[in-house]
Amino acid sequence: MKIAGGEGEAARPLLEEKPDVYFDGCPGCAMDRRKAENPGIPYGLFFHTWIINLVTCLPVSSLFPFLYFMIRDLGIAKKVEDIGFYAGFVGASYMLGRALTSIFWGILADRIGRKPIIVITTLSSLVFNTLFGLSMHYWMAISTRFLLGFLNGSLGTIRAYAVEVCRPEHHAIGLSLVNTSWAIALIIGPAIGGYFAHPTEKFPNLFSNDSLFGRFPYFLPCLFISIICFVVLISCIWLPETLHTHKVHNKEDQHPESLITYLSDSKEFDKQCSTSTKNKGLLTNWPLMSSIILFCIACFDDMAYSEIFSLWAESDKKYGGLSFSSKDVGNVLVVTGASILLYQTFIYPHIAQVLGLINSSRVATILSMVLLFTYPPMANLSRPWLSIVVNVASVFKSCSVATVVTCSFILQNNSVPQDQRATANGIATTLMSLFKAFAPAGAGIVFSWAQKHQHASIFPGDQMVFFLLDVVVLFELIWTFKPFLDIAKQTSSSSV
């Protein structure tokens, strides 16, 4: 047996050893035994985890290219300038629903297993994403998005599952795949939303105005995603459970006849098995909480920017916008999403290794602040320069946000031991969802106000919108310094 905490442990804070103890009939023990017998990377399970997280993330990003037009068609906004106000609450409803239940789903996943939560989330994504596409009234769009988030318990569960299906030396790969599936969702989701919305206009030979898709112009992209969800839901039949169902911390629960291997030192066994039951005060762990706050600010920045960018790009030039179509916005988001994937895979690791996590975040926030000041003048450009400049700026802005998000995510996971990581992820998901709920609502209100004050003498509306985004990024930069951000000792001793 090898006890965690030996040489090299500080350099690898995510990796911890577990005793080789297996019980018959326990799915967690079956998974542990599988990992012990197969030391390689579990590519099949990693891909399954990746595709599950992908389909549950697609509904989050797919509506951005057509949300402006959907709110317009629902007739809730009396003036064009009010569209952003109502669009913000649709974006916020999903995050508010997720914020209310993230910790609950995490606790439930620890009680009944990872697989049931994943199945419930995938099924709810299928049902309520479909209903969202069939929305004929504003209240229906709001409620279906809220329920979509309320019943989404997979984010924290998937992060825990990605670690539990692989050996300790492959934890970093599993966690990074969870992040890259979101990057892929940023590519596929907006592409589906941008290309398939209003199919009767884009594909008149296939869809007539009298068809179902003519009556519900935003149903096709939602249906397409729901079909993918259905396929993934069927595949969950073969998804193995990883939760241990036996109680190993009590000696009376141990049955020698079902024990495959056991520790010779029973005191050490009891010590290791009862570690996870101790309350170590996550809320008082400032390295954890300060990194979660940085993570939340970065997510707020990302969500507010995503909401404002789509609304600004699709609004008319007389309001300071770009007069883009949903397809134009979809193209920009596809290019941006693909760039984020390439950046996180090939460029970010080298930047973090050279600059470190904190300096990388600071450089990224400074770059983000500079970029935001360049957005309002873009409305004066003509094509094709407009498309080129918008794409370049969007790529650099999103990669800057991805840098801070990834750095803060690493810091928070390195601030806790493995047996507290699922709970920490639940807290982070709840707080992040709250920040993301306020972001689109606030962004929509500000954007609506800005369109009504486009001709102000000081800070016209479009300039005020991006100035306020810059204020958020400035606060994000300030938080990377002490005493706001604290770093766990094991993290500061690592290579990044």
Automatic annotation (TrEMBL):
Residues 45-488 form the Major facilitator superfamily (MFS) profile domain. The chain crosses the membrane at residues 43-71, 83-105, 117-140, 146-163, 175-198, 218-239, 288-312, 332-351, 363-379, 385-411, 431-451, 463-481. Keywords: Membrane, Transmembrane, Transmembrane helix, Transport. It is found in: Membrane. It comes from the Eukaryota. It is a multi-pass membrane protein. GO terms for cellular component: membrane. Its main location: membrane. InterPro entries: MFS, MFS_dom, MFS_trans_sf. Pfam families: MFS_1. PANTHER family: MAJOR FACILITATOR SUPERFAMILY (MFS) PROFILE DOMAIN-CONTAINING PROTEIN, MAJOR FACILITATOR SUPERFAMILY DOMAIN-CONTAINING PROTEIN 10. This is Major facilitator superfamily (MFS) profile domain-containing protein. It comes from Urochloa decumbens. The lineage of its organism: Eukaryota, Viridiplantae, Streptophyta, Embryophyta, Tracheophyta.
